[in-house]
């Protein structure tokens, strides 16, 4: 039994040992090395992943071969190509490992099965999905309304551990600024905290 998954679920719903044993039997373990792909564009079947350890990124590559980072995921976060997962379509994004990663994954069929069998799991997955929608909307609004300095400060306030862990060029891509601009902002932050 995985205590990280149980603790994560029990932040929202309670369950007995028997219930968790059954629920956890629908999850499978996966271990990947740094730079390995979890999902690639064009992939036919994708799962939903719960991060046990490591950091991943999801991104889209446009027609000019430019990478646009959509999401980072660290321990206790979920990641997938949501459109492909929920609509049984081929993936349009990539997800790869920034560090070595350990994950638990569940198929859409098993997620739907657990949701149908346990109201509490349906509630859990709905709460998690809603939190993801809210975070995505906030990110879009930040990209539309905030200056580059404000986006930088916003990222640090939301994700202080990621700011320390991620290569700066990935953060620059995520918040939509150049590497040079991020370097200048980082230096200002370091000088300001001294």
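Q: What amino acid sequence fits the structure above?
A:
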């Amino acid at each position: 039994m995985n205590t990280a998954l149980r603790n994560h679920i029990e932040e929202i719903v309670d369950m007995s040992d028997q219930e968790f044993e059954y629920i956890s039997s629908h999850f499978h373990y996966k271990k990947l090395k740094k730079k390995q792909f979890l999902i690639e564009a064009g992939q036919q079947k994708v799962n939903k992943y719960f991060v046990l350890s490591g950091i991943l990124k999801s991104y889209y590559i446009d027609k000019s071969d430019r990478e646009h980072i959509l999401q980072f995921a660290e321990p206790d976060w979920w990641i997938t190509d949501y459109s492909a997962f929920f609509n049984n379509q081929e993936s349009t994004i990539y997800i790869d490992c920034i560090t070595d990663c350990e994950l638990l994954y569940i198929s859409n069929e098993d997620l739907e099965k657990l949701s149908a069998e346990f109201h509490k799991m349906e509630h859990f997955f709905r709460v998690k999905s809603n939190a993801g929608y809210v975070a995505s909307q906030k990110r879009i609004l930040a990209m539309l309304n905030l200056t580059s300095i404000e986006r930088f400060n916003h990222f640090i306030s939301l994700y202080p551990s990621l700011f320390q862990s991620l290569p700066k060029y990935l953060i620059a891509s995520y918040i939509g600024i150049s590497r040079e601009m991020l370097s200048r902002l980082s230096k200002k932050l370091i000088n300001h905290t001294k």
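Q: And what stands out in the fold?
A: Residues 119-145 form the longest helix (27 residues).
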